[in-house]
Amino acid sequence: MAANYNAEPILKVEHMKQYFRISSSFTVKAVDDVSFDIYPGETYGLVGESGSGKTTIGRGIIRLYDPTGGKIIFKGAEISGKMSKETQLLLRTKMQMIFQDPMASLNPRKKIGDIIGEGLDIHHLYSTQEERKAKIDAILAKVGLAAEHYDRYPYQFSGGQRQRVGIARALIMNPDLIIADECISALDVSIQAQVVNLMKDIQEETGAAYLFIAHDLSMVKYISDRIGVLHLGRMLETGTKEEIFSNPLHPYTRSLLSAIPSPNPRVEKEKIALEYDYATSGIDYNKGTLTHIDGTHYVHGTPEEIAKWQAE
Fold first, then answer.
1. Which of 64, 125, 216, 218 is 20 to 30 A from 226 in CA distance terms?
2. Direct distance between the N- and C-terminal alpha carbons of the chain, in angstroms, rounded to an integer
C-alpha cells in the first residue's frame, strides 16, 4: 500500500521539545523545536548521529517520556498532554514500538507466546484461549517463525529471530503506526536485509505507517518515502528521499551523505568525506528556522545561510 498524501497525517509533531534536567544549573535539550508529519501508509526515516535525539523523539511520541513542550496529534487526538481513557486506549493499541535491542526488550522469564500475546491479554482482545493461540500463531507465521516457537524462551533464539518476535509483538495489536527504533542496528547485515524486507511486506499488506529511526543512510534510503535529518536535537533538513539524496542543502546533511561507503573500492579510495563541526561552522541553530525550499523540501537556517548553500 502506497503512502496516502491526500489524507490527513496520521501523526503530527509540532514544535516538540524534550528537556532533561540534570542539576539545578544544567538542562540537556535532547529535542528542541522539532516538527514533522507522517501520512497513512508512509515510512518516515529519521536519521542523525548518535546523541542527535532520534530515540528520544520516538519515546516521547509513544509517551515513554512526557514531552517538555510542543504538541503531538495522533489520528486526530492530542497525546502530548494529559490524556483521557479513550485517548490512552487509542495510543496503546494503535501505536506500537519495535525496540533497538531485541534481547533487552523481551522478558527472559516469559515464553515467546506470552510475550507476543501480552497486548491481547491487557486489552482483552479474545474470547477464548483457542482464539488467543490462533492469533499468536498467525502472527508468528507472518514474521517467518514457526508455531513450535510459541513455547520457547528468548535465549533460545538468534538476534534476527528475537527481532522478529519484537515485530510480532507490535503487529498483533494491528497498529496504524509503528515506531522502529534502530531495530536493525544490532543485527548482521544479511539479517538486516531480511528484517527490512519483512517490514516492507507487512506494510504492503497492512497499510501501517512507520517512523523508521536509524543511522544507516543506505537502509533509510531503501525503506523510506521521506527523510528527516537530526542534529543536536534540531531538525536540519527534511524532504523526500530523492530531494535529500540528490540535492542536500544543509552542510550537516552533505557530510552525512559523503560518509556513506561505496561498494566500489576505486570510488571509495578517491572519495573525500566532508567534515562538519557545529562549533566551528559559524551556524547558530537558535537563529535559523525550518524554511520551505521546494515541494516537500525544508531546510533549517537563516535566509542568508540557505541562499549561500543553494549557491554552492
1. 64
2. 38
What's the rounded Cα separation, in Å, for the pair 196 and 45?
A: 13
At 1, the pLDDT band (50, 70, 90 cuts) reads low
Q: Name the strands in the sheet holding 11-23, side by side, starting at the edge strand that comes first in the sequence.
A: 26-38, 11-23, 69-74, 77-78
Spacing of C-alpha 101 from chain mean position = 14
Burial of 19 (0-12, 13-18, 19+ CB in 10 A): middle
The total of other beta-carbon atoms located within 10 Å of residue 192's CB is 19
CB 10 within 8 A of CB 40: yes
For residue 42, the SS3 value is coil
Amino acid found at 189: V
Contact 101, 184 (CB under 8 A): no
CB-CB contact of 45 with 95 (8 Å): no
Q: CA 135, CA 174: separation in Å to the nearest integer?
A: 11
pLDDT confidence tier of residue 240, bands split at 50, 70 and 90: very high
CA dihedral 200, 203, 100, 146 (to 10 degrees): -80
pLDDT at 182 over 90: no
What pairing do the DSSP bridges indicate for beta strands 234-240 and 297-301? antiparallel
Q: Letter for the amino acid at 33?
A: D
* Residue 217 in grid coordinates: 543512510
Q: Which residues pair with residue 213 across a beta bridge? A: 46, 181
Task: Report helix, strand or coil for 158.
Answer: coil
> Model pTM?
0.92
Is 237 strand, coil or helix?
strand
pLDDT at 242 over 70: yes
- Please state, rounded to an integer, the average pLDDT across all residues of the chain: 91
- C-beta separation of 61 from 211 below 8 A: yes
Cβ neighbours, 10 Å, residue 98: 26
Q: Are strands 234-240 and 69-74 parallel, antiparallel or unpaired?
A: unpaired
Q: Residue 199 has what pLDDT?
A: 87
- DSSP letter for 8, please: P
